[in-house]
TrEMBL record:
It holds the Pfam family SET. Residues 137-183 are annotated as: Disordered. GO terms for molecular function: zinc ion binding. It comes from Hyphodiscus hymeniophilus. Gene3D superfamilies: SET domain. GO terms for cellular component: nucleus. Residues 171-183 have a biased composition (Polar residues). The keyword Zinc applies. The keyword Transport does not apply. Keywords: Metal-binding, Zinc, Zinc-finger. Transmembrane segments: none annotated. This is SET domain-containing protein.
Amino acid sequence: MRPLFSLYPSKTPGKKSEQDVVETTMDSDQEDDFLLEKRQNLTVALAELPYDLVTYLERAAVHADLGYPDLAAGDSYRALLLCDEVRDESFEYHEQALRALESRSANGIPEILRNRGTDIGDSPRLSNGIENVSIDGEGGAGAGPSLSNGIEHLNIDGEGAGRNNSNSSNGIENLSTDQNGDGRSHIQQVLQRASLQCYRNLAISLLLCGCLKSAIAFCMRGLDEVPEDDDLLQRKEFIENMARRRLKVDEVDINDLPDQGLVRREIYPWNDHEPNRFSQETLDFLNKELSSVAPKCEVKVTELPTLVDNESDSSSFSSVSTNKQLGLFAKEDLNRGETVLDEFSILTANNRLKEALCDACSSALPSLSENSTVVGCPDCYDTMFCNEECLSRAQLYHPSVCEKDLDTLAKDPDPKETPNALYLLLLARSLAMAETQQCHPLDLKEIKYIWGDFLPSASNAVSLSHNAPPPPIWTLPFSFSSNISNPLHVLEKMDIDIFASLATYDLWIFNTLYSKFRGTASARVNLRDGRPEVAAVHPLWCLANHDCDPNVQWEWGGQMKLWCREKRVGGTPGGIKAGEEILNHYCDIDLKVQERREWAKGSLGGWCMCERCRREADEEASNGHHVEGLVAGGPTEDD
Ligand SMILES: C[S@@+](CC[C@H](N)C(=O)[O-])C[C@H]1O[C@@H](n2cnc3c(N)ncnc32)[C@H](O)[C@@H]1O
């Protein structure tokens, strides 16, 4: 694994020789181990000194070197918030943040904030180490942006082509280091350097995540503070140029810039909450949970076809490769119409502000007639539940959000923001569950064992070599607001100290939660306008795999219910024999094969390869029908 970019200045001047590249490759594992250890030490340091913005900036640099620009942005944003705390005496953590900065600055400007011109000699590298971010192949024959995730293959080139590399040109160097030189205190100077560094970090790291609008917004905020900062000016220009090409416009309106990017979806190397999903211990736990919810079913390890998203990868349907996952199986025969699973979950969310939905299970509230079972929370006026049972279940999350003014969060969103808003609300619910139960969010039993659609860290890594292929396409949707600012806003509303709670509420934890929700949540649409309004994770229901010829049917009211189908597709009688897999359906099975497969690309992660899909695709092909998406050059992710 190699870093995508560096917020630290590199000590190596000039371009790498071939030998350097080989040596770097050979050492990259050791380098990663070193960086991971450094990350761990900085995380421990932050637990001890949570208001130390310098340590946040140090960890941002390590995250960047490890190739996680999203995590670098998260640390830089917390550091920026701490800059505000230092600046404003009336802020809650002012004293702590000021004392931490004073202590870190006692021996001069902290290393991470120093001008690196002296470190790098004649190197054209600028003090933040980004040096020269260029779009691969730009200006070359036929070359252009190559990735759909907004990163577009950013390369670091050792030469500062066409840039003003003067050490005194980037704003930071213009600040006097003389304690009394211009009347400002030493601390104020350190603070100004720090906040400028935060803006620079946020600009480049959010750009690398594909969040161009937020990246440029931070450039502009930084330029408001230090208008002459060459570095920010260049980043802003770079983003504008990239946006002009992507949007194919001459003038860029910041409001039109893309802000939804993609980041790495993986079990982070330091995540020790993720269980071995195939261990006997996990299976025993899940089967115990299943015994009351689906007494005739058991969870087992199974092999599923590895889903692909184009014809060349799936050239022979007869030789489909498989991968190990979990699935739900019948332990006993199940008759037609028989209930297979009946599951309640409090991991639900709804995005309607004035809709009469139960806060716990998100089903429509019964009417408020004389004998209505509807009850309100005795401590806050607005929160309603179907009945006493839902109120009692709500005690597993509601106390930490009761009267906390979170009712309007992500409600009635802009239609194109609806899925993100629902995922944010699920995240908020999981944080409330964790806080109320005093449990790490990743250890909640509703979350710990669910599928996250993670890729191995190695396949997410980005090479820095000059000859490297394009970086991998990351798969976890990411935006500054959904992943960084809004979760912190939720925590603040819950009166949680966002600096002192890193062990439970760090950005990598939010990303892991989002990965799991995106892999398992179901949504319900409002029948009046067809828009998704409710989302939920049912941790046992979501163990059942998809098939376009399902043997069960599902419905989600207050509970998620699965029952055995009367008939299979094609009219054969239903019924499930002991040992057979419970085959759920995630899409409308009345769609044609190509439509189902288009849907599955987004939702399953590739073309559905179930027996029915393969058979119908073969039939269509032999009838000479063009099957959309099954021909080379068919729709891509960008479409
Ligand atoms: C909700 S989970 C289902 C349970 C999952 N197998 C587990 O281990 O927990 C959905 C994921 O299961 C896999 N999956 C479900 N049905 C599949 C199918 N018919 N073919 C291949 N993979 C499938 C896909 O990876 C999908 O993203």
